[in-house]
């Protein structure tokens, strides 16, 4: 069983309720001002446990907006972890694929006015399509003793970052049904332009 007691700043174990069930969890802080965030460690993790790397999306995760797949992916991942009784959610402060909330909002507005996807609108604004880095998360997972994980993702960049940190990765696709036409177009853009492992 991996331990998080001596890795960075760790909260005491506590129990939380979700969807009628309780699960033990701890929080590990990732102190990086650009690609940091938190590990939420659920239950007694072991090698081969489920892991989700998730970048913060205020619109989808919190407000429930239906223009992206972020909220449904997060919920599906936590459902899977809770179903197994153990796993790790790496929640990274990388709003707008690392561009920040204001740039994300600017990109969405420009895209809606000009009929562009968010990757195209970011380029028009002089931004990188995706500036996220997962090295901090990869090192943190290795730091809590995980050498092999089942990663719930469609993003090959996340897989590559973990493999570069000597973490063995089994990919668990995380497909959700688009809740709007905007979400459908966004998923298509991610598949075509960023090579996400998504069905056509």
UniProtKB/TrEMBL annotation:
Its EC number is 3.5.4.25. Pathway: Cofactor biosynthesis; riboflavin biosynthesis. It holds the Pfam family GTP_cyclohydro2. Keywords: Hydrolase, Metal-binding, Riboflavin biosynthesis. It is an enzyme of class 3 (hydrolase). Residues 40-169 form the GTP cyclohydrolase II domain. GO terms for molecular function: GTP cyclohydrolase II activity. PANTHER family: 3,4-DIHYDROXY-2-BUTANONE 4-PHOSPHATE SYNTHASE, GTP CYCLOHYDROLASE II-RELATED. This is GTP cyclohydrolase II RibA. It comes from Nocardia jiangsuensis.
